[in-house]
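Quick note —
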Amino acid sequence: MLPFVSMPSFQRHVFVCINERAADNPKGCCKAKGGEDVRDQLKLELKKRGLSKMIRANNAGCLDQCEYGVTVVVYPEQVWYGHVTVADIAEIVEKHLVHGEVVTRLLIPEQPHLGGKTKFPVLEVTP
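Predicted structure written out below.
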């Protein structure tokens, strides 16, 4: 029997698409648009700010939003961002992940599940 290890509890979980498609695929792919660099910068920014224990950043396969790649989705809010670049990461971390404010300029259109909501709970920083 394995020893009990407590399950981590994250306040937010961020998925970055790094899916790769053939170069001639008309949908394109997030990997070719810099998905791995975006993911690496996100992880670096979270670590630099001491947020890695509260916010989890993960790779994702295809999120079916190829035309908006690099695609990033934040849970539990289910906010979808498109055309994300390395240069956008500090703003996403500061505004959305820490302060709960959606970065509207990066929102993928047609997200009726948000009901127009652009504010969510502020990150509860734990020592």
